[in-house]
Specification:
Layout: H1 12-21, H2 27-33, E1 37-39, E2 45-47, H3 49-60, H4 94-99, E3 108-112, E4 117-121, H5 124-136
Antiparallel strand pairs: 1-2, 3-4
Helix pairs in contact: 1-3
InterPro entries: AbrB-like, SpoVT-AbrB_dom
GO molecular function: DNA-binding transcription repressor activity; transcription cis-regulatory region binding
Keywords: DNA-binding
């Protein structure tokens, strides 16, 4: 009996493209076609669904594990809800600033609506424009 050559498991864009091509197949068959299976000593093919699903999650860019912070400790995760503190302040925590790759000193313009607050980051062009206006005034 001739052994079928096992393909290397697909990852990233190649995996996503192949899964889209195989949309009418079962998830087990998709995993197998994408190389996520092993052959036992008895010649039985065993689909590795966990590796396949994890590869799909990675290919989609979804981060399930929280990235450890620089000091090695985990922090709070973003809940996308905040409350007004007893002193009247709204605190946007580091979970959000880290997610947006904000650095100390980054500035924002605040726009207030009836029931919302909008923050727009000031980039270098905005800073130059506002500085030019200040010198004119």
């Amino acid at each position: 009996m001739a052994k079928a050559k096992k393909i290397e498991p697909l990852t990233g864009e190649d995996l996503l493209k192949k899964v889209k091509e195989l949309e009418n197949l079962s998830k087990e068959e998709k995993a197998k076609q994408c190389g996520y299976y092993t052959v036992t000593k008895n010649g039985i093919e065993r689909v590795n669904m966990m590796k396949f699903l994890n590869a799909l999650i990675d290919a989609e860019g979804i981060q399930l594990d929280s990235a450890p912070s620089a000091n090695g400790r985990g922090g709070r995760s973003a809940s996308y809800r905040i409350s007004v503190q007893s002193n009247g302040n709204l605190l946007i925590g580091s979970a959000y600033t880290k997610q947006m790759n904000l650095k100390p000193g980054d500035e924002f313009i605040i726009t207030l609506g009836k029931k919302h607050i909008r923050l727009r980051q000031i980039d270098t062009e905005d800073k130059e424009d506002s500085e030019a206006l200040e010198t004119v005034a």
